[in-house]
Amino acid sequence: MTDASDPAVDRQPAAEPPFILYMDGEEYLRELRNLTVWVSDLLLPVYGREVSSSQPWCPRWWEHLEAVARLHALWLAWQECTDAAAGSAGPAVWHRDHLGPALAELRSPVGPFAGCKEGSHRAKTVPVVEPYDDGRTPQDAAEPDPYDGNLW
User: How much is the pTM?
Assistant: First the structure.
């Protein structure tokens, strides 16, 4: 029998939280609710600058999947970089490596909020993607593709 308080005991590392784009259903909605609390209670009150045409922000940011992805990544980095294990430089690293680049992309005049204004959300149209033709014949297509699988 091993002693769990013994530092020599090999412990499994805590599971990393999954990226929100890998979630669906209730798991996605729960994570999005948690993300909205962080965005509304910490990110925007501290780092939200005035909205303008050169620095747009969408009041319904959660309807922009790119924004959800970028903000979730920013939140995950926040959790890691502000943890005591990150050391005293963790918050500075978060500001330099995560916050600045994320906000620059989100608030760019050509970013996901382009066309959105204070009090007004504008849905974006997804670029047209033509079907991929891998050049296989119908007979080839019947064979299992070793690379066929979930890319997410």
Answer: 0.75
